[in-house]
Amino acid sequence: xxxxxxxxxxxxxxxxxxxxxxxxxxxxxxxxxxxxxxxxxxxxxxxxxxxxxxxxxxxxxxxxxxxxxxxxxxxxxxxxxxxxxxxxxxxxxxxxxxxxxxxxxxxxxxxxxxxxxxxxxxxxxxxxxxxxxxxxxxxxxxxxxxxxxxxxxxxxxxxxxxxxxxxxxxxxxxxxxxxxxxxxxxxxxxxxxxxxxxxxxxxxxxxxxxxxxxxxxxxxxxxxxxxxxxxxxxxxxxxxxxxxxxxxxxxxxxxxxxxxxxxxxxxxxxxxxxxxxxxxxxxxxxxxxxxxxxx
Length: 295
Hints:
- This protein is mostly helical.
- 70% of the residues lie in helices and 3% in strands.
- The protein contains 10 helices and 2 strands.
- The protein has a two-stranded antiparallel sheet with strand order 1-2.
- Helix 4 (116-130) crosses helix 6 (160-186).
- The protein is extended.
């Protein structure tokens, strides 16, 4: 039987692998916090909970504005925040998705074009807006676009929410462009070759054979981007657009801006976005499993 060096036989080398264990040596106690916690009396957790529970009540009593008053204020403002605020966020996300989808589809098809300058231009625009912060794009659009146009003597005003829609459309357009390009390139090249052997033109192959197959592949990521876009619409509040976050802030100021209003009002906005976006996310995952390409 082969001997194990260091166990069955002495170590051949001059350097020991492990130093001998010295029980008298001092070593740090890895359970020092656990031991300290175990020595605390049993009434300590009750004292901590009492302090946490009583302190907000004392602060509320000093300010004269309780949590019940905060929820009462939210109840009064709730219809206004829902109709004039959150539905406006949904409207912004809808028009942004429409513009972003149309422009992104054209840009995605441009990325697979056989015309070199068009392909390079489409790639550059896609990468530019896909890798830029959404908030920076919003600020640039808000400051760069004029607030009114004059055409044939008629002055047409451009409201801020339209600038917000246009600003959010740019990054959505870039990401939809990548979705379209990826879906087209995921179709096996054998279908292109088979269609060309049947004398189909490139346009006929694209519109009659490839794109109909790409629709179900593009649907899950397209819905995913809609959910992300909807959750990004509160960025418009930084530009002064009157959506739910802006109106919530104005409502709290109308209620004397008590700190107790922050959690109910922003929690209500959080709940609305969750209730709206969570079913979209679940449906997206379901469609992704359904239309997954099985290799």
